[in-house]
Amino acid sequence: MEILRRPRRLRATKAIRDLVHETDLHVSDLIYPVFVVEGEHIKEEIPSMPGIFHYSLDTFQEHLKEIAVSGVKSVIFFGVPDHKDEVGSGAYDDEGIVQRALRLTKSLYPELICIADICLCEYTSHGHCGLVKDGCVLNDPTLELLSKAALSCARAGADIVAPSDMMDGRIGHMRRTLDGAGFENTLIMAYSIKYASAFYGPFREAADSAPAFGDRRSYQMDWRNKKEAIVEAALDVEEGADILMVKPALAYLDMVKTISDRFDLPLCTYSVSGEYSMMKAAALNGWINEKSVVMESMTAMKRAGAKMIITYYALDIARWLIEEA
């Protein structure tokens, strides 16, 4: 029987594969997460995330040079304050650790895109993402504080604010607050689809943000649900989000594809700490080729529809891409 089509012809050599390939990963797609802490002379590796560190502002200033040289153009900031209280006041303190990190970054590298994660969990004594009363996380009273945090970070130089709390209505409240204060050009990257995932474990160590009681299932999404994700994304679009996000990434590529196909806004996905730690641990044990597995995983995220990826591997990927060029 004569074979009329031979798809293998398009895979015959590396040069041909490179010529016809469909999906590219670019340095400009990458967003690098950093953890900034109070104090001086601090550069401490996070035990569950080898290669990722806590930085005080003086050591972070040195790390900024590495980021700038790498070609990575976007950084998302997470703060670990010394002081925590019931209302998460450090999140909206104009002299908070993230606010100071934003001002430092913009003074040295004004072209770097600065993204401020907006949540209360790192700043509250109870570790929840909102105000708590009688063991319940309060939605509407929390919105005011989240918007205060977003405005404080915008004033400090954030190009993008990224609310990760999963309170209902926070995008609209934040948009009105920013616009009313003259920050109508500050973008909102909404953590629209954020599942209550077990993949966040190492991050909670890094950010010292584990809840002191209960869990976050009453506000983060049930990972068994798909239609609920579409509702959440649609609400964020209606309320004025500029960028949508699906978090985590690898276990939710179906949702990356679904949200990318259904909505016209740019889509980000967050390759979270658990994903990083699993790949890093396997690589350190010699069980996988780290570069190959990471690049395959990130390309899968792009292929599913992500325009941008938050990844702890950002600097490594940037280096690998340059080496391959």
Describe this structure in words.
The structure is a single chain. By secondary structure, the protein is α/β, with parallel strands linked by helices. It has a domain of 222 residues: Aldolase class I (TIM Barrel, Alpha-Beta Barrel), CATH 3.20.20. It is 39% helix and 19% strand. It has eleven helices and twelve strands. The strands form two sheets. Strands 1-4-5-8-9-10-11-12 form an eight-stranded parallel barrel, surrounded by eight helices. Helix 3 runs parallel beside helix 4.
Entry keywords:
metal-binding, Delta-aminolevulinic acid dehydratase, alpha/beta, TIM Barrel, 325 residues, ALAD, two-stranded antiparallel sheet, eight-stranded parallel β-barrel, 11 helices
CATH fold-level assignment of the domain at 24-245: TIM Barrel
Strand residue percentage: 15-25%
Total E-strand runs: 12
Low-confidence stretches: none
Number of helices: 11
Radius of gyration, taken over Cα atoms and rounded to an integer in Å: 20 Å
CATH top level label of the domain at 24-245: Alpha Beta
With strands numbered from the N-terminus, the spatial order across the biggest sheet is: 1-4-5-8-9-10-11-12
Helix content: 25-40%
Give the topology:
Layout: H1 14-20, E1 30-37, E2 43-46, E3 49-55, H2 57-70, E4 74-80, H3 97-108, E5 113-118, E6 132-133, E7 136-137, H4 140-156, E8 160-163, H5 170-180, E9 187-194, H6 201-206, H7 227-239, E10 243-247, H8 253-262, E11 267-271, H9 273-284, H10 290-304, E12 308-311, H11 314-324
Parallel strand pairs: 1-3, 1-4, 1-12, 4-5, 5-8, 8-9, 9-10, 10-11, 11-12
Antiparallel strand pairs: 2-3, 6-7
Helix pairs in contact: 2-3, 3-4, 4-5, 8-10
